[in-house]
Amino acid sequence: MTARPYNFSAGPAAMPAEVLEIAAGEMLDWHGTGMSVMEMSHRGKAFGEIIARAEADLRSLLAIPAQFKVLFMQGGGLGENAIVPLNLSRGGAVDFVISGSWSQKSHKEAGRYAQARVAASNADTKHTTLPAPASWAIGGDAQYVHLCSNETIHGVEFHELPDLKALGSDAPLVIDFSSHVASRPVDWSRVGLAFGGAQKNLGPAGLTLVVVREDLLGHALPICPSAFNYQTVADNGSMYNTPPTYAIYLAGLTFQWLQRQGGIAEMERRNIAKAALLYDFIDRSAFYENRVAPEARSRMNIPFFLQDESRNEAFLAGAQARGLLQLKGHKSVGGMRASLYNAMPIEGVRALVDYMQQFEKEMA
Ligand code: PMP
Question: Does 18-260 carry CATH code 3.40.50.300?
Answer without folding.
Answer: no
